[in-house]
Design goal:
By secondary structure, the protein is of the alpha/beta class. It folds into two domains: 9-181 and 227-249, Rossmann fold; 184-224, no CATH class. Helix content is 45%, strand content 13%. The chain has a seven-stranded parallel beta sheet with strand order 3-2-1-4-5-6-7, with helices on both faces. Helix 4 links the parallel strand 4 and strand 5 (131-135). It binds NADP nicotinamide-adenine-dinucleotide phosphate (NAP).
């Protein structure tokens, strides 16, 4: 299927690995010119032919600097993928294990990075009749299933997407949300990621925790979601083929959530 994205431009945040990198691959594979943003520039970004812009999106001015640099590279912007996120503040416990600093850090990366990047990108997206895709989490609908600052920040991000779709839809910009369940990325696979910390707190090996995740989460597919599967959904939502899809929240979690 031709997604009719060839020659168009995109910014993908959190793009050096995982879902972000898979999204860069999907969009460059459709012939888009893509700016890929993360704190580090990985060889994988460059191999895909994307333009890497190193930036800390957890800072107040990082997102605006990114959009300015991206517009200088791309000229115009058709698609913004707010993918950056994650982070558990280093804690795996319940509500009382997170202090203000951790709440601020997690909200900074999962909510304010998207707020600030979108604010900077919107004038350009309005000129082009562009599209925004926000990467939230199915945890937004099951906030007890992960670190509470993370799941509540994602719930706010999902609501943010709906609000933007209402306000800017009449002016030609579509906004959609993608909400994955557990995806096979560094978050679960890395020996010093969230999965490893969670496993240690439960007295399990990381591999044991990850192997049991599909059953624990009720994933009908019996396996973690692949980054490329999320990226394919993002690419479709970015495409003019999805012209009637806006303000929607697309769960991609192997059937874990039974009510959506
Ligand atoms: N994996 C899952 O199970 C899962 C499930 C639901 C939702 N999600 C969401 O999907 C998105 C991507 O997750 P992922 O699993 O692909 O994550 P990941 O593998 O940990 O990758 C995160 C990406 O964000 C970048 N990043 C982190 N902090 C940054 C900062 N301060 N400034 C700029 N870039 C930063 C990282 O690169 P640098 O470290 O080089 O900066 C990396 O490219 C996140 O929003 C996450 O919450 C993931």
């Amino acid at each position: 299927m031709d997604l009719q994205l060839s020659g168009r431009t995109a910014v993908v945040t959190g793009a050096s690995r995982g879902i972000g990198l898979a999204t860069v691959a999907a969009l460059t594979g459709e012939g888009m010119r893509v700016v890929a943003a993360a704190r580090t520039v990985t060889p994988e970004i460059e191999e895909l032919g994307a333009i890497a812009i190193p930036v800390d999106l957890g800072t107040a001015d990082g997102p605006a600097r990114l959009v300015e640099a991206a517009l200088a590279e791309l000229g115009e912007l058709d698609v913004l993928v707010n993918n950056v996120g994650g982070g558990d503040g280093g804690a795996t416990g319940g509500f009382l294990s997170f202090d203000d600093e951790q709440w601020e850090e997690i909200y900074g990366l999962n909510l304010f990075a998207a707020v600030r990047t979108t604010r900077a990108a919107l004038p350009g997206l309005l000129r082009r009749g562009g599209a925004v895709v926000n990467v939230s989490s199915n945890g937004a609908r099951i906030p007890h299933a992960g670190p509470v600052p993370y799941t509540t920040a994602k719930a706010a991000l999902t609501a943010f997407g709906k609000a933007l779709a209402e306000e800017f839809g009449p002016r030609g910009v579509r906004v959609n949300t993608v909400s994955p369940g557990p995806v096979r990325t560094a978050m679960w696979e890395s020996p010093d990621g969230y999965g490893a910390r969670l496993a240690a707190s439960l007295g399990l090996a990381r591999e044991q925790l990850v192997a049991g995740l599909p059953a624990t989460m009720g994933m009908i597919t019996g396996r973690l979601v692949e980054p490329a599967e999320v990226a394919a959904l993002v690419a479709y939502l970015a495409s003019p083929l999805a012209a009637s899809t806006t303000g929607a929240d697309h769960i991609i979690d192997g059937g874990a959530i039974k009510t959506a």
